[in-house]
Design brief:
The protein is an alpha+beta fold. The protein contains 6 helices and 4 strands. A two-stranded antiparallel ribbon has the order 1-4. Strands 2-3 form a two-stranded antiparallel sheet. The longest helix is centred in the first third of the chain and has 15 residues, at 15-29. The model has no long low-confidence stretch (mean pLDDT 81).
Length: 141
């Protein structure tokens, strides 16, 4: 089962809006029973079991970055692991490039899923939380 959340704002890429969305998602994930229902990235019996990340644009804005070249080019890994957001305009601009998404044909959620059709002037952003655990011996697909 899943939960889809829709965030609206006059301009969804406003840093204050992105920070508020991130804070809300963190609060949701810190609820006492969240870890009883989240979809684990491995079976619960595994000692390193963790909840899978939600499908959220905040994973990009707060993603881990790795330098590619000395001229400030870098890759962003949409893992949401940074405690502070990256350059929101730069990340959104990169998300708008069709060539970026073509490199990841297995990605079932392209940029058009995260934002409304007004991108890059979006007023809506969505997040999807998936709940349930894989059965012992099986992995979630």
């Amino acid at each position: 089962w899943s939960l889809q959340l829709y965030y609206t704002a006059d301009y969804i890429f406003d840093p204050e809006v992105i920070e508020a969305v991130r804070a809300f998602e963190k609060r949701l994930e810190s609820l006492p029973s969240y870890h009883r229902f989240c979809l684990f990235s491995s079976t619960r019996s595994h000692p390193n079991s963790t909840c899978g990340r939600p499908l959220s644009a905040t994973n990009f804005f707060y993603g881990r970055q790795e330098a590619v070249t000395a001229d400030r080019a870098y890759h962003v890994y949409a893992d949401g692991s940074n405690s502070s957001h990256l350059d929101i305009k730069a990340v959104a601009r990169a998300m708008g490039q069709a060539a970026i998404w073509q490199k990841f044909p297995e990605q079932p959620y392209p940029r058009t899923w995260y934002f409304d059709e007004a991108f890059p002037r979006s007023q809506v952003m969505q997040t999807k939380y998936v709940f349930g655990v894989p059965l012992p011996g099986f992995k979630h697909r």
